[in-house]
């Protein structure tokens, strides 16, 4: 059963040069107790679609249309006061850079105790005990000592663990992880991913995991939504995305072929997707990926494909989803 459903979401930003359609008709869902991985290049609309859920947009940003159904309720109809109760309580966020997310002038204890005091009405003494418990839960050594420290006294991995502790303080139903391992080295990244998987199993929390790293998605996600130019171009279970299938979007295919593998013969160059993501104020007429697609036809350049169901639990936005047929030029 879906805990979160985003239906035909359009999020726009008004600028001096025009309206940027950062999210343009996005639909995806996150099942209870599952992880949805949202993947794509920078500027594809991954983070904006997620921040639209909690209305954490810049002043010039707005949700133009669409529905955001959370736990059976369209939270687009919620007042600001109602959203304050949802944020950090039912839906929490782990942001990309922990050093800019944590306040440098307050101790870890002060910042981690806030969710307990604000959302659960605890007294300061009781909240302090919960702070130590949460720091221990995210595998931080000497939690009593760390609680008294300031963010600059902790390493990047420790700060990210603190952010996870803050996000999970009220045991939210949905956790939005916005590229939480980008600023971390590989060994710390592995520890953080393992920790999040353990906490998901223990607490039953659903996760919306945003990243550009397909390796991370393969390790974390149950289902995958591939985004490009503010649209979902493919959506399928992770096992379908990461195994050889009959159907695939050319963009997903390009992302997969650009990953180095152990069985890649020596001297063979990895394929790269040519070109760059088009400017949001100058999008192509037809398929948004057509200028970079080696299989594009005149139809692709003139008409925009819809996101259609190809098979069970598999949707693709392409006129030629069959990989063999498009390679043969049919």
TrEMBL record:
Signal peptide: none annotated. SUPFAM superfamilies: P-loop containing nucleoside triphosphate hydrolases (SSF52540). GO terms for molecular function: ATP binding; ATP hydrolysis activity. It holds the Pfam family ABC_tran. One of its GO terms (cellular component) is plasma membrane. It is found in: Cell membrane. Residues 4-254 form the ABC transporter domain. GO terms for biological process: peptide transport. It comes from the Bacteria. Belongs to the ABC transporter superfamily. This is Peptide/nickel transport system ATP-binding protein. It comes from Anaerosporobacter mobilis DSM 15930.
């Amino acid at each position: 059963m879906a805990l979160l459903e985003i239906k035909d979401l359009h999020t726009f930003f008004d600028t001096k040069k025009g309206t940027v359609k950062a999210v343009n008709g996005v639909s995806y869902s996150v099942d209870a107790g599952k992880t949805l991985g949202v993947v794509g290049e920078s500027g594809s609309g991954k983070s904006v679609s997620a921040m639209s859920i909690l209305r954490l947009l810049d002043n010039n940003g707005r949700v133009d249309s669409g529905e955001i159904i959370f736990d059976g309720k369209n939270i687009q109809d919620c007042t600001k006061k109602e959203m304050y109760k949802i944020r950090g309580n039912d839906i929490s966020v782990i942001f990309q850079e922990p050093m800019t997310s944590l306040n440098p002038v307050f101790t870890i204890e002060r910042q981690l105790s806030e969710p307990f005091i604000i959302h659960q009405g605890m007294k300061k003494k009781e909240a302090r005990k919960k702070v130590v418990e949460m720091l221990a839960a995210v595998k931080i050594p000497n939690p009593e000592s760390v609680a008294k420290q300031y963010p600059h006294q902790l390493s990047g991995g420790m700060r990210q663990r603190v952010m996870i502790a803050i996000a999970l303080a009220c045991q939210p139903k949905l956790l939005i992880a916005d590229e939480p391992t980008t600023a971390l080295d590989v060994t710390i990244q592995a520890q953080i991913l393992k920790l999040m998987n353990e906490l998901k199993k223990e607490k039953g929390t659903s996760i919306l995991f945003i990243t550009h790293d397909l390796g991370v998605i393969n390790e974390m996600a149950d289902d995958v939504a591939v985004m490009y130019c503010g649209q979902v171009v493919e959506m399928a279970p992770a096992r379908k995305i990461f195994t050889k299938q009959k159907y695939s979007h050319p963009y997903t295919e390009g992302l997969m072929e650009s990953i180095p593998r152990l069985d890649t013969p020596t001297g063979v160059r990895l394929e790269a997707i040519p070109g760059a993501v088009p400017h949001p104020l100058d999008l192509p007429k037809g398929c948004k990926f057509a200028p970079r697609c080696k299989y594009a036809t005149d139809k692709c350049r003139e008409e925009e494909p819809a996101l259609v169901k190809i098979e069970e639990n598999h949707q693709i936005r392409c006129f030629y989803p069959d990989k063999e047929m498009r390679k043969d030029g049919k």
